[in-house]
Queue: 2 jobs
Job 1
Amino acid sequence: MDKNVEKIEIAEPMISIVYPKIVERCIECSYEVNIFGHNDSFDEALSMIIALNEYDEELCMKVLEVSINKIIQKMSNLRYSIDFTKEEMTYN
């Protein structure tokens, strides 16, 4: 991985779990950090955050800072409703 770290210009969750130094380099060089990954997944974003937090809390905070707009957009796309008129609450 050390040999190819200079070639990578985007950090995605799976690579950040395996080799967090790539995320460090992407932040330093202002390259893209795709927190949700190629499949736009909350699970992958959470895995990335957990892995980076264990590796370096400051790096994790930087990733969250540069990803804040993507996170906000993703959260605003969530819609839920609770129907209290039924015996069981339903979520959509």
Note: The chain has a mean pLDDT of 85.
Job 2
Amino acid sequence: MRVAVVGATGAVGTTMLAIMGARNFPADEVVAFASERSAGRQLPFGQNTLTVEPLSEQAIAGFDLALFSAGSSISREWAPRFRDAGAVAVDNSSEWRMHDEVPLVVAEVNPEALDGHQGIVANPNCTAMVLLVALAPIERAVGIERLVVSTYQAVSGTGQKAVEELRAQARAVLEGAELPAPEIYPHRIAFNVIPQVETFKDGDPYTTEERKVIGETRKILGRPDLPVSATCVRVPVFTGHSESVNIRTREPLSPEGCRDLLSEAPGLAVVDRPGDALYPLATDAAGQDEVLVGRIRTDESAERTLNLWVVGDNLRKGAATNTVQLGELLIERGLLSARA
């Protein structure tokens, strides 16, 4: 069993390696790939270290599985190359998610979608991932008629440079120093809230991130006509995406029934004692693989409608953990053939 990790030096890639080591991922050999400038860099992997290699046609031969977290352009070029060389590619970028022939999979939600793969499997957007872990049990139990979600997204979702930008700006504000000009975001992120995640394209009033949440939610649930509205916001938090979710259900579901339902669902932890100031926090979700759900209450302005507060680590369950889980599922289901 030979496994490639492509984009191994990035925030998600290093997290992926750490999770693989902690979960004793069943690989005989793991090879770390990154850009030419990172070649030769040493990365920790369990009790060992990996030496980063650059991608090349010769280097990708002989792999069973390739886990990608290197951006859309790299995935567009190299995922098909790994597939054609006999590996199954699990991609964490947005490149393949909405292709009809590519399964878009959350491990706890729709693992059966892996069975029809054609050599490439897509990992959902981190925001949609956290959301779907909480939504799927409700959809299965009582059905969902309409969904409105507002997100509060951490800067690590943009990458390590965004984390450094927040840190530098916050230090400057607190020390009364000259504020460095924003480079990663269109405005200062320190002590600010920016109602734009990713970009606006072709006059669309929704950002590309909001379109991802809408489209991927429909695809994963198998509900192409599900009414979904999303507003995605960037906040000055290092790790942990938070989401305010308003759900109208097909059949009635009480807050108590919802708590019981979600308490038994895989990948979730209910934290819901607001009178004791116990509810999901980004700082609590950071470093965890479970998605936290709380503030479960009736929306008194509408029938059969609940409000939830959902939080998850965008680097772990939102990206790296699910990628590793999909690799494990492919192995367990005997699907590690690019032509399965």
Note: The longest helix spans residues 126-142.
